[in-house]
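sry for the spam today, last one i promise. C-alpha cells for design, 265 residues
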C-alpha cells in the first residue's frame, strides 16, 4: 500500500463500496483486468477453503509460486529491502538488543526477519507463519544471507494460540502486515494469548490498515479497522494498548499499535 493511503481522504474511503470501485476503475482502467482475475481467484479459494487460515494459506501458495517478494507485498527487490530496513530501524530505535528474544508473527520470507536474525544472539529469533510455501522461501533468504549459524526457529502454525511457546519468554513480539490480512477473530485470538508469552516488560507491535470511516474488507484479503476497535479488543484482554504516533512519520501505508501486559510497569 502506498504511503498516501494515510491521507485524510483515503482514511475515510471504503474500498469495498461500489462507488469506490467504479471511481477507481475509471481512474485506473489498466488495473481492471488484474482486479477481475484476483476477484475470480478469491471466489474460487473462498469456496474451497471456508476457514480464513486455509483460504489465506492458499492465497500465499498462489502468490509465492509467482514471486515470494511480491507475495509479502513488495513489488521490487529494492522495496523488499527498504520495507525490511524500516521494520528493523524502528525496533532498534525502540531498544531491541542482541540478547532479547523476539517472536515474528507472519514472518513471511524474512523481509525484516533476516535483519533481526543477524542482530540477535543465536536462537533468539522465532518466526511463525501459516504458509509452508513462504517458509520455504524464508529458508532460502536465510541461506542467501549466510545466517545459518544464528539458528533461528521457523515454524508453521495453524492458529495464534502460541500453545507451543513458554510463558513470559519474549521481549518483543512483532506482526508486520499480518493483521491487515486478518479477520477480527484471528486478531482476537492473538490478543487473547500474547500476554502469556510476553516477558513482564515486553511489548507486542502490530501494524494494521487504518480507516477512519466504515470498517471494510476487500476480497477477503485486506481488512481495514478503526484504531479504537483494536485498542478496545486488546484492552478487553487485560493488555495495555497505545497507538504509535512516531510510526506515522514513516513512509508506510499502515499504522501501528503497541500492546503490553496489563501488569507491566
Ligand atoms: C504481507 S506478508 C508480511 C510478511 C512479513 N511480516 C513482512 O513484513 O515481510 C503477511 C504474512 O503473514 C502471514 N499470515 C497471514 N495470516 C497469518 C496468521 N493468522 N498467522 C500467521 N501468519 C499469518 C502470511 O502467510 C504472510 O507470510
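last one done:
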Amino acid at each position: 500500500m502506498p504511503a498516501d493511503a494515510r491521507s485524510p481522504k483515503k482514511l475515510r474511503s471504503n474500498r469495498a463500496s461500489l462507488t469506490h470501485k467504479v471511481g477507481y476503475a475509471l481512474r485506473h482502467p489498466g488495473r481492471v483486468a488484474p482486479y477481475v482475475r484476483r476477484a475470480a481467484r478469491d471466489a474460487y479459494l473462498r469456496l474451497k477453503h471456508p476457514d480464513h487460515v486455509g483460504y489465506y494459506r492458499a492465497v500465499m501458495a498462489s502468490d509465492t509460486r509467482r514471486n515470494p517478494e511480491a507475495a509479502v507485498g513488495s513489488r521490487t527487490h529494492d522495496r523488499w529491502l527498504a520495507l525490511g530496513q524500516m521494520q528493523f530501524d524502528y525496533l532498534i530505535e525502540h531498544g531491541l538488543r542482541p540478547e532479547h528474544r523476539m517472536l515474528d508473527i507472519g514472518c513471511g520470507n524474512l523481509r525484516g526477519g533476516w535483519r533481526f536474525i543477524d542482530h540477535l544472539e543465536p536462537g533468539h529469533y522465532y518466526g511463525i507463519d501459516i504458509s509452508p510455501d513462504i517458509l520455504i522461501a524464508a529458508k532460502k533468504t536465510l541461506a542467501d544471507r549466510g545466517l545459518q549459524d544464528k539458528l533461528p526457529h521457523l515454524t508453521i502454525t495453524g492458529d495464534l494460540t502460541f500453545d507451543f511457546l513458554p510463558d513470559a519468554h519474549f521481549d518483543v513480539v512483532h506482526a508486520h502486515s499480518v493483521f491487515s490480512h486478518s479477520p477480527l477473530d484471528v486478531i482476537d485470538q492473538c490478543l487473547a494469548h500474547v500476554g502469556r508469552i510476553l516477558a513482564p516488560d515486553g511489548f507486542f507491535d502490530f501494524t494494521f490498515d487504518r480507516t477512519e470511516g466504515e470498517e471494510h474488507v476487500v476480497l477477503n484479503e485486506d481488512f481495514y479497522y478503526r484504531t479504537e476497535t483494536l485498542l478496545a479488543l486488546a484492552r478487553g484482554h487485560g493488555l495495555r494498548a497505545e497507538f504509535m504516533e512516531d510510526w506515522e512519520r514513516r513512509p508506510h501505508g499502515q499504522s501501528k499499535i503497541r500492546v503490553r501486559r496489563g501488569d507491566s510497569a
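The pocket of S-adenosylmethionine is lined by residues 53, 56, 60, 72-73, 105-108, 111-112, 128-131, 134, 157, 160, 176-178, 181-182, 186 (CB under 6 Å). ok im logging off now
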